[in-house]
Amino acid sequence: MSSQKQEAVKRISAPDIRARKGGEPIVCLTAYDAPTAALLDDHCDLLLVGDSVGMVVHGMPNTVGVTLEMMILHGQAVMRGSRRAMVVIDMPFGSYEGGKEQAYQNCARVMKETGAQGVKVESGPTVAETIAYLVQRGIPVMGHVGLRPQAVLTDGAFKAKGRTDEERLRVLSEAEATADAGAFAVVIEGVAEGLAREITLAIDKPTIGIGASSACDGQILVTPDMLGLFDWTPKFVRRYADLRGDIDRAVGAYAADVKARRFPAEVETYFSKKPVTP
Hints:
The protein has one domain (about 10-245): Phosphoenolpyruvate-binding domains (TIM Barrel, Alpha-Beta Barrel), CATH 3.20.20.60. It has twelve helices and eight strands. The protein has helices spanning about 1-10, 15-20, 35-40, 55, 70-80, 100-115, 130-135, 150-155, 165-180, 195-200, 225, 245-260, and strands at about 25-30, 45-50, 85-90, 120, 140-145, 185-190, 205-210, 220.
């Protein structure tokens, strides 16, 4: 019954997201595992299996060390947990910059092994041609401009972009090239409201903001950030929960019950069946 119900639900697709340009804002969050994906699925139009998994799940200092195998593993989990939201998987650093053919082989592998509906690439100055190559071969692509986490080693830190005229024009140009290449949507990260609005008006594809103001066509946040799992979050994150505090209190209560022998109690304990009397 459950599998039949899942099969009857039509997943949101790249054309569906593309058609939302200028309409009802697109709701997006990151997801890395099946249980979380199942909880997010009814509320989100798009779930991004972000390479942020390296930092928020695996404890890496940045996203550069994330591998293709990691993205596939987490992508498979998110696909199992969701049924209606579009699932997009980040292509990790080094998996698409080496040329169009390399990008196609890796993206095709991700699509085949996960069943996801699209991939995301960070749209540096040389990536538009690769996006066009992928789209022409049937791979839906989401772009990403502004602050690009995979460029952290060249930038030196996670810094907001577009604060100078030269940088503003570069980010705008990359966004336009990404949209023209066929990306179905473009993530804009870490830019001022004016630039986010300018990009949103300039391109005919939906923009998804993260630290880019409400001027965008949709929004995305890293789910553990907005749920309050960490003691620090970026300025642009609104915490909708305090799971860090909730988990700390729950684990503390469990530890106290174990030490006081209050857990397990009789209700949580198995007992031998009484022998049957003749």
